[in-house]
Amino acid sequence: QVQLVESGGGLVQAGGSLRVSCAASGGTFTRFAMGWFRQAPGKEREFVARVSASDSHTYYADSVKGRFTISRDNTKNTVYLQMNSLKPEDTAVYYCAAEQRGLNVMRTMPGGYDYWGQGTQVTVSS
């Protein structure tokens, strides 16, 4: 029932910036904590960032802290990931995810989220 549709991926040079978006439908967006994960070929899906449902508190993986910013626009049912100072190692498929239980203990774990987008490719050239 809940659908997440991502957009904004593409090719960018190292040091550049990119913003990916995820539009949610089929649920009550304001009740979802929203997360971004990424997965490179041959690697496990890893946590990137999360914004809470209740107070829009944000949490980041150490690898992106200071470079990436997650935000949500509840009037548009959309979550964003602004990526600055991109590095080649940021290259991955980026997925947005929704979590409706408010279980912060599992906020960095893919299994802690209930719904997933299709992913959008981000490629950072050296």
- List the quaternary state of the chains: single chain
pLDDT average, as an integer? 96
Radius of gyration: 13 Å
First-residue to last-residue Cα separation: 40 Å
Q: Main beta sheet: strand number and arrangement?
A: 7 strands, mixed
* Residue share in β-strands: over 45%
What order do the SSEs take from the amino end to the carboxyl end, as H and E?
Answer: EEEEEEEEEEE
Briefly note the structural class of the backbone.
mainly beta
Shape: globular
Which stretches of 5+ consecutive residues score pLDDT under 50?
Answer: none
Number of helices: 0
Q: Could you give the count of β-strands?
A: 11
Query: Percent helix among the residues?
Result: under 10%
